[in-house]
Each structure stands twice: as C-alpha cells, then as structure tokens.
Amino acid sequence: MGLSQDNLKGVVLALLSSGFIGASFIIKKKGLRRAAAVSGVRAGCGGYAYLLEPLWWLGMITMIVGEVANFVAYAFAPAILVTPLGALSIIVSAVLAQFMLKEKLQPLGVLGCVMCISGSVVIVIHAPQESPITSVQEIWTMATQPAFLLYLGSVIVLVFLLIFHFVPRCGHTNVLVFTGICSLMGSLSVMSVKALGTALKLTFEGKNQLLYPETWFFLFIVATCVITQMNYLNKALDTFNTAVVSPIYYVMFTSLTILASVIMFKDWDGQSMGSIISELCGFIAVLSGTILLNSTKDSDRGSSFRGGHAPLSPTLSTGLFSGNGETPKQDEENVLLSEEICLRKQELH
C-alpha cells in the first residue's frame, strides 16, 4: 500500500522527532557531566550548575525541536502510525551512546534495535489512509460519537478509581497504578493533540479554526491531560526503577493510544484484514524490541554491580518518554546516579 502525501509528511516528521529526541539525551548527558566536572556538584545531589552549561541547553533545544516535530506529525498522519515510531528514539540514543559515551550495546540490544526498525517499517507500509478533515467541528463529531464517549467514560472512571482507591493503598508498591494513570491520560492527550494540531494546520492553510470553541476545548484537554500525566509519571519514576517503569509505560501508553485512535478516527475502516494483522504484528515487534533493548541495558548495569564496579553510565531507557512526558529533572538524576556511586568508591580507595 502506497503512502499518501500527508502520511509521508507525518512519517518524516516522526522520524525527525525520534532523531532529535534520541540525540538530545546524549547531548544533555554530556552537558551534565561537563557541568558536574566544573562545579563538583551533580544535578542528582541538588546542583544546578548545568543551567549555565551551553551543551545542556543545546540538548534541551534539540528535545524541544523533536517534540514540536512530533506534535506536527499528528496533524498529518494517524496516531496508529506516529506513536509507535517514537520507539526509534531509543535506538538513536543507544547507537549514539555507544560511540559518544562508550556504552556498549550488547548483541541482544542489537536484536532489539533490528526488531524496532523492522516493526516500524511494517507499520509504515501498512498504515491506514486518513480521510481528509475540513474543520475542527468534524473532529468534535468524532469525539462525541457513542463509541468514543464510552471509551472516554471508561478512562475517566478508571483514572478516578486508580487515584482515589488504589494510589493510597498500593500506589507505592504496584508499578501498574502510576503507569496506568499516565497511560490512560496519555491516550486522551494524544487524541487532543491530534485535534489541536489539525485545527492549527487548517488555520495556517487559511481556514481559521481559532474561532470555534472546540479548538480551545481541545487545548484545555491537552493541558489537563499532560499535567496529570507528568505528575504521575514523576511519581512512578521516583518510586520504581526506571528500567521497570519504561517498558511497562511504553507498552500501555502506545496500546491505549492506538485503541483510542481506532475508535475515534476509525483508522481501520476500509482496511483489509491482512493489513490490520500486519500492523498488529509490526506493533508487537516494536514493543518486543523495546522491552528487549531495555532489559539488556538493565542486565548490563546489574552485572557491573556484581563485578564490584559501578557502571560508568546508566541506561538510556528514559528515552522511552520521548513523545509522552519525559522530565529533564528526572533524567538528570538518573543519568548521574551511577557516576556518584563511582566517585564514592574512588574516595574509599
């Protein structure tokens, strides 16, 4: 199946987004190391010297460019195509880390990269063609159809149940509680981002959508969902190992986003069963590759500790949050934790 012009633009933007975001983690990490070397105080210990480090700001700017490209990609292509491609940022980080940070990529990690790339190619080849949208009111009609309202109601009920019932009881012992809230809210934020992005695209084409209250309502939903998502993502990262949170969050978030997109935008309408099965297989390959890449990095870290040496650098699994709410502060703390252990070991000797 050939790609439409809009789908092609969306794929290119999604790939650029993954490239920029993946590279931003490496640039920020080098900036954090340089700032720590100059000031002697690491970000994980409360230091803020990195704010004066140009390399760290270059990393932040690179990440912002990537996030903007990701936002615009949703205006051109369906979420079922754009969202899984976010996993490619992990590959960019892993490859750059091997050359720039001397982090060794194990054979199973290479296999994970190959699976992510292969799955992404399959998804792109069999991606559905979106019906042209002429106004934000059209999207509002899709958002208020009974099937999506049922999904929306289910998400709201589940989020309230998780926040008010499960968080006080097992939020700090069960990783699925915080990641579940993030993933459910994340699926709604992506739908709203797509609606808002499409409205802005139409506005720039000369069809002003800012006159409609629906556009501003979608903006409000984006802000609400992202703030909630970021809040509970931070709690998950603060409570549990990043290598545990990352794959679970990515799998849940991506799965729920695709489900929401299929319901709201009817992505699979008109597609053959073969194309749908191919997309699902590609999606499973991407998820499997992501988990495999993550697990090999975590096992490397564990073997380093067992050998009596702290790892020179932590995993780059935080790259999983490329399009979904990765926080700079949490990244800084995770990035420098192992280096702090290294220093302490050196002081003991």
UniProtKB/TrEMBL annotation:
Which portions of the chain have biased composition (kind: Polar residues)?
A: 314-327
SUPFAM superfamilies reported for this sequence: Multidrug resistance efflux transporter EmrE (SSF103481)
Give a Gene Ontology cellular component term annotated to this protein: plasma membrane
Could you tell me where this protein is found in the cell?
A: Cell membrane; Early endosome
Q: Which Pfam families match?
A: Mg_trans_NIPA (PF05653)
Keywords, A to Z? Answer: Cell membrane, Endosome, Ion transport, Magnesium, Membrane, Transmembrane, Transmembrane helix, Transport
In Gene Ontology terms, what is a biological process of this protein?
A: magnesium ion transport
Signal peptide residues are none
Q: Where is this region: Disordered?
A: 302-332
Where are its TM segments located?
Answer: 6-27, 48-65, 71-96, 108-128, 148-168, 175-196, 216-233, 240-264, 276-296
An example molecular function term from Gene Ontology annotations: magnesium ion transmembrane transporter activity
Membrane topology summary: Multi-pass membrane protein
User: Quaternary arrangement and interactors, per the entry?
Assistant: Homodimer.
The protein's job, in short, is: Acts as a Mg(2+) transporter. Can also transport other divalent cations such as Fe(2+), Sr(2+), Ba(2+), Mn(2+) and Co(2+) but to a much less extent than Mg(2+).
> Per the similarity annotation, which family is this?
Belongs to the NIPA (TC 2.A.7) family.
| Official protein name in the record | Probable magnesium transporter
